Structure formats: C-alpha cells, structure tokens
C-alpha cells in the first residue's frame, strides 16, 4: 500500500479562514466581539486581499456578521439561533440515519464505536469531549457518502461547535453523553430505524435544552 498521493494545495485565504474558525470556536474571539481587519492583518502578517477573502468565507458560514458602517463581528448565539441550528441539524441527521438503514448500510455505523470509547475516557470538563462529539456526528453524516448532505451538515458544524462548547458545563459526568451516543449508533447498526430515529430526536432535544438553559433562554 502506498502512502504517496497528490499534494493538496491550500490557499492563503483558506489557511487564514482555518485559524479564524479555530479562534472563534475556542473563544479567543468572543461572541459579539469585533474582528478588526487591520489588527488581524498585522497579527497574522498577511496582506488585506486573502484576509478579506477569508473573512468573507466566515461571513457566508455565519460565523461573522456584518454591521453597516461598523465592520464584522463574531456571531452571537441567541435562543432563536440555537433553535434554528438544532432544527436544521436534526433534519439532516435523521435523514442520514434513515438513509444508512434503508440502503442496507447500517453496519457501517459501527465505525462510530471508537469515538464512543474515546468519549468515555474523557472527563466531562475536557474540551476534547465536545470535539469528539462533533467528530461523531460528522462521521455519522459522512457515512451516507452524499456530497450535498455532507456539505449542508458541514455548514452547520462550526456554529454547532459553539453550541456544544456552551452545553459542556451542564454535564456532571460524561456518562450520560456517552450513553446517548452509544445507544444511537448501536440502534443504527441493528437496523432499527424506529428506535434510532427516536433516540436521535431525543438526543437533539436534550442538547438544545441544555444550551438554552445554560444561557438562561429556556
């Protein structure tokens, strides 16, 4: 088996966008904080052209919002945004689960088992548990091999990461979180669409409730 393959060319704008996404996701740029183009260009040592392209990408992704005559700001979650994110996310992931089972590919969901085990080894306060949670759901949708479904889901993942980070303090331990993910993928592997769908919807509702409650929006 060869380890050699085509070299992926990554533009400067994409490199900048990647750093900005990570800075927003980890809280280096707080929700509602203004992102100064000049300060960022100086900090990163880049020209305005690729920086503007990167910021435009994040605006299209919903991570940055423009305010007329004021500039760009990091998106702020509110109750309406959280509900909308979970509405779209639930629709996509329910379709992914149904597709895997109805096309006879439910066994592929066994690929989620290592992520459940990794989650079980993490403390509920460890930021890595939210990243693992995100990776689990990305893989769940990725197993469909549907480019359009994956693309729609990917567009939500960055905003979803803010939700997952916000809900993290609501768990006393990782046990409940691990059980939800374990029960879900085992139902998919078993080909039980009714159970898998019910577990997924309950999981989404629980996540939405936690994010709303921790922010005082319930």
Automatic annotation (TrEMBL):
Alphabetical list of PROSITE patterns matching this protein: HTH_GNTR
Keyword Transcription regulation among record annotations: yes
Gene Ontology molecular function: DNA binding; DNA-binding transcription factor activity
The UniProt record lists the keyword Transferase: no
A Pfam family assignment: GntR
UniProt-listed SUPFAM superfamilies: GntR ligand-binding domain-like, Winged helix' DNA-binding domain
Record-linked InterPro entries: GntR_C (IPR011711), TF_FadR/GntR_C (IPR008920), Tscrpt_reg_HTH_GntR (IPR000524), WH-like_DNA-bd_sf (IPR036388), WH_DNA-bd_sf (IPR036390)
Name of the protein described by the UniProt record: GntR family transcriptional regulator
Organism per entry: Enemella dayhoffiae
